[in-house]
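Example 284.
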Amino acid sequence: MAAAVSLRNVHKVYNNACVVNDLSLTIEPGEIFGLLGPNGAGKSTTIRMLTTLAQATQGDIVVAGCDISRQPAEVRRQIGVVLQQVSIDGDLSVWENMEFHGRMHHIPNRVRQQEIDRWLSYVGLSNRKADKAKLLSGGMQRRLQIARALLHQPKILFLDEPTVGLDPQTRRRLWEIIQDLNQQQGMTMLLTTHYMEEVEYLCDRIGIMDRGQLIETGTLAELRQKHGEGIVMKQTGDRWDYDFFPTLDAANDYLDQQPDKTGMMTRASNLEDIFVELTGRNLD
Ligand code: ADP
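Predicted structure in complex with adenosine-5'-diphosphate:
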């Protein structure tokens, strides 16, 4: 099967700075792929290029089987986009926001009304149809963005930091929606985030991005296997030193052998450990 998204040697240069540097990546149909990285890593720029909002300086991008530079309109028909900055019109009602988007996509009248009802109900906003969008909470506005992005039945959904700034309960509700769309509709998703738990909960595969480069890809299990599934931590003053071990058992064995175990502990490794190991920095 053809890839849902493919980038080959993609570069983006802004003001002589290479903010996306030689990015090559393939996302398979039906995958939830998470692009993880600290602020400024180039995640949003990557999403903007994939959704036709920014042009790559160099490289090839194919989305839903269409070359992005030659068939941008066709790409736009095939994708839904939920961007970080809330892009709904606060002075329009919830329904009007949906209606406007539906008309932009030339969805015929009868189907449009049905689809608006269907997706507003799906994200739990049926009873807010007549309210101005600006009166909705942050989480509801994000759900409206998702409903709107789904209106023209895209094959691939791009979500840029979908839960940033939301409280944990609202975040979890959005995760459920994203997971359900993937499982029930087989929708391919690419999301960016700097929340580790989001990636661990949602994503089939992870790409770690730092300073414009994709420095690692794989499933969480693959990454843990590669870098080490167990960790020995040692506290020296205010500082914690970490050592990776192939397994948690191996880390425990090592600890057992130490004559002085003061300030030492073991635990399973997580994505954050791997990120710090790769970049020498924390995500936030
Ligand atoms: P992330 O989404 O990982 O936080 P971004 O893609 O937003 O990272 O930004 C990557 C780098 O590109 C940053 O240094 C940012 O300042 C720069 N950048 C992003 N958009 C523009 C732009 N339109 N003009 C100039 N520089 C930009």
